[in-house]
Amino acid sequence: MSGADASQAGGAGCGRFTRDELELAAIARSDPQAPVADGLPAHLGGCPVCAAIVDRIAADNALLAEFAHAAPMPVPSRVADDAGPIAGYKLGEEIHRGAQGAVYRAEQLATRRTCAVKMLLRGRFAGDRERIRFEREVEVVARMRHPSIVTLYESGVSREGEPWFAMELVAGDRIDGFVRANALAPRQVAELMKHVAEGVAYAHRRGVIHRDLKPGNIIVDAEGVPRVLDFGLARSDDEGAAEQPGSGTTLVGEFLGTFAYAAPEQLSGDPTAVDSRCDLYALGVVFYECMVGRRPFEGARSIAELVTQKTMSAPERPGALNRAVDRDLDVIVLRLLSADPARRYDTADALVEDLTRYLDGRPILARDDSLAYVVRKTLRRHWLASSAGAALLLTIVVSGVALAIAYARAERERVRSERTLSSFRDAVGSVNPESAAGSAQLTVEQFLELIEQNAASELSDEPAVLAGVLDTIGIVHLGFEDTARAEKSLRAALDSRRVLFARGECGKAELADSLHNMGRLLFLEGKPAEAEVDYREALALRNDAFGSDDPRTMLTWRHLAACIRRQKRLEEARAMFDEILVRAMEIPGYPPTELAAIINSRAFIAADESRYEDALHGFREALAVIQRELPADDYRIGRSHFNIATVEEKLGRRLESTHHAQEALTILRKRKGGDAATVQKVEALLGRLQGGGEGQR
Amino acid sequence: MDLERTTTALLNGLFDPRNAAAWEAFDRRYRPILVGFVRNCGVKPTEAAEIAQETIVRFVEEYREGKYDRSRGRLGAWLVTIARYRVLDMRRKAGTAKIERGESAMIDLDDDKSVGAAYEAERRHALLREALEELRTKSRTDPKTVKAFEMLVYHSLTPQVVAEQLGMSTHDVYLAKSRVAAKLREIVVRLEQEYEETPGDWEASGARPSDGLRA
Predict the structure, then answer these.
(1) The predicted structure's pLDDT at residue A369
(2) Interface size, chain A vs chain B, as Cβ–Cβ contacts under 8 Å
(3) 3-state secondary structure string across A484-499
(4) What is the pLDDT, as a whole number, of residue A392?
(5) SS3 of residue A97 by DSSP
(6) Which of A137, A226, B35, B105 could crosslink B52 through cysteines, CB 3.0-4.6 Å?
(7) ipTM
């Protein structure tokens, strides 16, 4: 050490300025923003003692800055130097003992703060692999600072040669216990999981995969914030940089995680197949368990059986086990639990995004590949030009079918889904333009009909699955406003489900789906009285199955009110819409697009009553909401423009009306095809506005 | 200076295939430098580790065959030339798509200056890490002094907070910083001597290694 420093032990420099002031003067050499004491620069010119000290401090700072940059975070291995087994800490009771280490409550003597100290079990007898793993844990955790991740204080080697590290002591409950004890609703669980996912996303962005996420590793602290613990199995993406080949801590075929939370690719024992998406799978299991009280695959008697379950079958959707779990959460959780990592979210950030959307009541993105959405988005025209198109549609329809068969019981599901898939495979094979039966100009309608025929013969002994398939196909037909074909499929599905329901082989939820879809069809066919009957029955069933606040129940209620309005019972309809609106606004996170639909419906009544200014106000409000929420070319935006155009026409404002009608036409033509009834209505309006046949097809 | 640890001593040891200690010490010193260098060429971690390993193996082979003569060029330049061929070869095989993007300071492998500076930065980083490890494990520096330094430099805490947490005066915290800096400077000077790689004079004249690809 320098003699100058020793001589300065009592004061700083010549004594005119404090050490603090001299330090700041040194900092000011590289940082002009640093405050410098008055008169100090001038003093340094005439005082060689102070000038030498400032020079020295500046040189020290430059060197230390180089260290801070070059050697990221201390992973010290200091030997103990006082009485306890660990220098500077007083160990207390043992808090936890796991596969690799024991955790003690401890006091850091220098700061008097309470913390947790983790030590490697079996001490110096632990093998190199345990030691490398432990050291890695330190490295990994030390790099991270996030509210959802425990903070590491320091690490070292005990008197006995045992590696240890001191971290924040988190007092709280395991996440599953916390959810149970507080009887949290699925929405509240989603909030907790969002915090956990944020921590995991933070780690992933730093190349750190946890690989052992489970309820025991997620502690909810006193503030209600979940904290991720125990990076004992973590594998950093850049570990290759520090590791001798062959000393990898994960040997091929070895698997140390907890089986129930492990992703299928982890169970395969192939370390190269494992990436950050295994954490997403584990989060899916934890999420599922917290919402329904059991894990998605229970009852496996062996690891082999568990592997088979995880890779060959889809878990029962959480909503089937807990009615309070709504469809969006079903979609999010099932997506996390996909056996194929490519079907999960790409990143933990994407999961955070979807949970945020869900909690804000916005549409989730995982939904985007739902059947009808993709069909409409992808196929601008009603025909399949190539077999590539056919393959695409197969994917789309099969994912819809997968939802339908998720209702089936788990043990028979794999067989069923295989049979369903094979019937689709046959159907697609038969539309290959290169085969004898194929045709390059096959329409979607014809294609769906082919699938329907195939399914009817292949699944004749699985009526519940067949009904789900028919219902799905019917909805697609309805999406294209092909009411004749839709009626055939939906009627068959409904009839079948009624029979099955009477025999106890079909749930209320499924029968209600069929009734609701049938109601929608009848409404579109201009039979509101008949539709009302089906909607009323569907409403009662959905109320029972999902509760009155569920978006599905609310949707049926809104449709019912629309049937009443269409029958000119305006007073009754207005009262019902008002009731729906009040209820919807009380439901936290109610989707804004649904609120917009209710506002829209009330505006229709105003229009029916010739209160056009009121109607216009409502339609505009609804449009503003959905424009914020939906893609610019969503068909609902097109409908909304059309509504405004209609009222503007009534008010005699041709210019405004034409503008909105043209907006509507662009969107609806794109989304519905040129032949759709809605499009023809818009064209008729434009024709009237332009005073002639122009715009008529 | 520990004469057993100089690069010259390690290189001499490498002549004897049974001298595992020399091999390990050489590997421990140069592998992290090469991994860091190759990573900065936009190569993924696992591939970087592989290239570093291949480079060291190839170097030792050539060294034993007498192809590398220290008097005619820097060791680092020789190593980097082997590694550079490996990286270019990997890029050629994989196509540019596999190169990680977004590296702000990607090395331009066609520019000797850029290559030299990158190697030098990695070497210096490795040396500083070694110095830090020595400070923590081997020097007799008071643990509390080391702790104060870590809190200041790595946790970016103010001297006032460090003083409060460690029960010292602010003045003592400044002195601790100064002591650690002096100790580290001493270690760094010694290690630089052991590495025997004076910066500068990068474009060494003389023999160049083979392309490392073995026809």
Answers:
(1) 42
(2) 107
(3) HHHHHHHHHHHHHHHH
(4) 43
(5) strand
(6) B35
(7) 0.82
